[in-house]
């Protein structure tokens, strides 16, 4: 029942104007970059068809296999439609490769012409990047509002629970879970709408796309949960400006500073790879030594010695070629080790884990690069073998095409990164730690440390008139603004303790209708009571406005309508009259007086005395104002105001 009431209230609260504007901004930017991704994908598909045609025409222009051995075979890396939604390194876009019949195995990024400028600044932004940049910020600030106002939480808890000291966790989990569910549903709906847009534009999504998608959604959920819980924890910082500064610092650290540090580590790790120019030199040395040895044996190529030259070619195939091939295999192994190291450190934070999942899901990630490299290693021996078989035939060779289908297109698939489950569990562990720390912090709102309880007990002993006994209503002038909350904590073990906060502590984005509905669900009020509340607060005038836009009188009427229906034995009223209209103060005084007459103990603490002769004695948190209620009654008699 409690969770349902919180969920329904938070559901209505979620759609405040500020949040809707921010979500709309994310939605519009996502639409733009998804549309850009669709255009890029269509261009890539068109380019792959043109590439095939161009390569076929180029091969037809070759006159003999000597030219083929120089020209070789070119291959193109073709990404999956997943690259429409998921971000990827610019360097892994527009990948090509060239294989010839001797030693060449090149992988390169075409930087001639218009491809030089692809990926410049924001060109490579995708939907997943928008979620990373703005979605994380939204989750952080949404979490920040969850437990920020201690007085409001104490008021809500005292209204919801009979035994707060034993049941307070219900409030924490109801708030945190309901708000995170709403956050998650929002971004799942956003993701679904972007996928729908891709389908609407006629892009076919292959089965492998959904593997990457599910991994992406899981990583997004963990990242959102981490930022949300970070916000929940930071929200316990009392100073508002300090809290927001910490929020921004957390966001910058996770999105900029830590990724930059990891990139620096990777740069140093990559320096340990064997330099490609040295490897090419060693490969060249093998082939030139073979060519020199062959020339010394047989001289220039002469077709009358075809069998001798064929035997030399077979000797190259059986010996030198595979030595060269081993260099490439060792390189790909070393690169894979470096990539595995990158993935391991990127699993250590939710943002880098999310980014790595997005990159691999795009099909333009490092695992597909290794797949492309291995594909070339498998293809290269076939090119060399094809050259030897065709070139050294007894009859004059005819040009036969090596590529007969799509062999020169490497069609990448959306992938789940290696070690994904481990990364998911690591970051889930962080979230559980944040949840535990947040819960401990929440408990301190209701269960302060023993020394603090002792300090409150000593403070009560120093204040004449405390503790207030059943059937008494006393007002005390506050010297310590935090004392009412501490006093409430002191009385928590007493069943039936009620804390009343000021209207200013009620969240400004709450609407009166949703706030009142929350209470009549919690209190299980009958239909007549609901109608009475609506009439009392003139619901038609206030229901569409958030609390921050209500007049003080309207706020006071809503608070009183709820207070009239609360039942307790001990009441702590925290400066509820400060800055409020006289009419509200009179009604509040009458309500407190009525509670005392019915046997309740009412402690009213205020920072605004109704009399001018109130004085503090040194060292006290509060001091009784015996004439406060009398002053209110005098005002009531003069103004003629009634309850």
Structure description:
- The longest helix is centred in the N-terminal third of the chain and has 44 residues, at 17-60.
- The strands form two sheets. The chain has a five-stranded mixed beta sheet.
- The two termini are 33 Å apart.
- It has a domain at 449-639: Rossmann fold (3-Layer(aba) Sandwich), CATH 3.40.50.
- Residues 111-123, 611-618 and 637-643 have low confidence and may be disordered.
- By secondary structure, the protein is of the alpha/beta class.
- It has helices at 2-14, 17-60, 65-71, 127-144, 150-160, 164-167, 169-200, 207-234, 240-270, 276-298, 306-318, 320-346, 350-361, 366-391, 420-446, 450-462, 483-490, 512-522, 527-537, 539-542, 552-563, 582-597, 628-639, and strands at residues 73-78, 95-99, 105-109, 409-411, 473-478, 497-500, 570-574, 601-606, 622-624.
- Strand 2 (95-99) and strand 3 (105-109) form a beta hairpin.
What general form does the structure show?
elongated
Q: What name does CATH use for the topology of the domain at 449-639?
A: Rossmann fold
Are there runs of 5+ residues with pLDDT below 50, and where?
Answer: 111-123, 611-618, 637-643
Strand arrangement, major sheet? 6-7-8-5-9
Helical fraction:
55-70%
pLDDT averaged over residues: 83
Backbone CA Rg? 37 Å
Q: What fraction strand? A: 5-15%
C-alpha end-to-end distance: 33 Å
Largest sheet: 5 strands, mixed
What is the CATH C level class of the domain at 449-639, in words?
Alpha Beta
Number of helices: 23
Task: Provide the CATH architecture of the domain at 449-639.
Answer: 3-Layer(aba) Sandwich
Oligomer: single chain
Class based on secondary structure composition and strand pairing: alpha/beta
The overall strand count is 9
